[in-house]
Amino acid sequence: MIEPSGAKPDLGGTTAKTTIFVVDGDSALSYLLERYADRGGFSFREVHVPWQAPPAPPSGPAALWLPSIERLEAVKPRESGIGEELPVIVCSFVGDEDRAQQLGADYCAYHPLRYRDFLTALRAVGITDRAGAISGRGPTA
Q: What is the pTM of this model?
């Protein structure tokens, strides 16, 4: 079980590209998301909990991606405050949409995750193009 430390991850950066932050992703999903992010012209960064760094908002648009409903439940991005700054996407299975929404996810993508599903999830939370235009919550470039 993850013990919340109260600190948020350091999400700062110097790029104007949209950053996809993957929280405690398993190696296969992280590898896949990193490839999709690179293919789509996005920046990719893994973060781990408990959050070890002081809060720092990203310098450009961003989204927080969790590998499962269980990780979403353990990390609780809305309660930690980081989910208030960034849209939250969770990768899960069909039928988990209601639970994902109850836990604070903005979008529920499904396994197996394909590239077009990755892009659909980003668009659903307001990330609309490779340059990182975003609407809704989160910082903008």
A: 0.76
